Structures are given as C-alpha cells and as structure tokens.
Amino acid sequence: ASTLYGGDAIGGTINLVSKLPTFKREWCATANQSSLKETNLNTYFAQRSKHVGVTFFAGQTWQQACDVNGDGFSDVPRVRSTMIHPKLIVYFNPKSTLTINYAGTIEQREGGNMRYFENTSRDSLYFIRQQMQRHSGDAKWLYSFSKRSNLTLKLSSTFLKQTILNPDYFFDGRQVQYYSELSYVKQSETMNWVLGLNVNGDDFSNQ
C-alpha cells in the first residue's frame, strides 16, 4: 500500500470508488431541512456515450447558528458551504481509459456568542470565524494488457487556503500538495506482483 499510495498509507488504506456513468442518463436532486436550521440542496448528473462519460455533483449548505443548551453560545456554527465535483472519462478503447476529476469546496463557518450574529458592533463579543477553500484535481490513465495485467499512471494535486480569526488570534495558511504514481500490476495463480514509483510533495506557508 505504501508503494501505491505513499508514506501516509503505512497503516493501511481505504479505497473509495466513485460512481461511474452508464449509458442510461441519470439525474437526481435532493433538498433537506433539519430541525437545527440547516438547509441542503444537492444535484447529481451522469451519462456515458461510446467514448465519453461525464458526472457532475453540486451541493449547497446553509446552516444557521443554534444555541441548543441555552448558554448564550452557539453549539452549532453558522455555515455557508458550496461544493462542485465534475468528472470526465474518456474511453479510448476497451484497454485504455483516462479519468479527469475536479473537486472544489468553498466554506465559511462562524461561531461564538449568539449576540455576535445580531450585533453590528462585535468588537467586545467572542467569536471564531473560519474560511476555507479547497481545490483538488487528479487524472488517471489505465491501460490493461490483459485481465491480469495493467499499467496505471496517476497525477493529483490539492490547494487549500484556510483563515481562522477570533479576537485574540489570526491564522492564514496555504498548502499545496501533489502526488504522482506509476504502477504495474501482474496477477498470477499463486501471487500478485506490483512494481511502482511515486513522487509526492507538500508545501505549506502561513501568511
């Protein structure tokens, strides 16, 4: 697992497999309203042709601050969150497939004294505000020599910007991570062979 997924996988990995488009068009939308004043709207679309497949997910969340236990401070923060996730799959032939993903999340969270959300003069009230942007992109090319042998090239990168502010503290961090991997897998009756090479990096700065 470390050869395929890097040093962070020493303790094991969880393989999350995204839903793939089919030749039948699929579209759905959901709306949710909770008793804690949270509203969610989500939509998903997917379709495939002979050589091209696409999926698209978009979601929006509005959460109002709530003081559940009545102590004057928010137990649930105010949240404004937007997420989009398109995917493109190119089927060159039965042996060769290219997948390109993008996922973007923009979110703002605010908590603290409940009067903070009502008072225009907030200097004397405790609050904490967090703003986050995360943009991730990846590409994967898979070539199958046979049912038991394949070559895979993966490239991915993530940009994260996060700001945290309260009356006594300010944090403004930026992080860029990248990962690349080339692996060859050969399966036999008694064992599996994996040969891989990966390059990864992480750059963080606090403005």
Instruction: Characterize the biggest β-sheet.
Output: 9 strands, antiparallel
Shape category: elongated
Number of strands: 9
> Which regions are unreliable across 5 or more consecutive residues at pLDDT < 50?
none
| Fraction in helix | under 10%
- The radius of gyration computed from the alpha-carbon positions, rounded to a whole number of angstroms, is 22 Å
Element order, helices and strands?
A: HEEEEEEEEE
- Strands across the major sheet, in which order? 1-2-3-4-5-6-7-8-9
SS strand fraction: over 45%
Instruction: Briefly note the structural class of the backbone.
Output: mainly beta
Overall pLDDT: 90
Distance between the termini: 35 Å
How many separate helices? 1
Structural summary, described in words:
With 207 residues, the protein is mostly beta strands. 2% of the residues lie in helices and 66% in strands. It has one helix and nine strands; from the N terminus they run H-E-E-E-E-E-E-E-E-E. It has a nine-stranded antiparallel β-sheet with strand order 1-2-3-4-5-6-7-8-9. A hairpin with a 4-residue loop joins strand 8 and strand 9 (192-206). The longest helix is centred in the first third of the chain and has 4 residues, at 2-5. It is elongated. The mean pLDDT is 90.
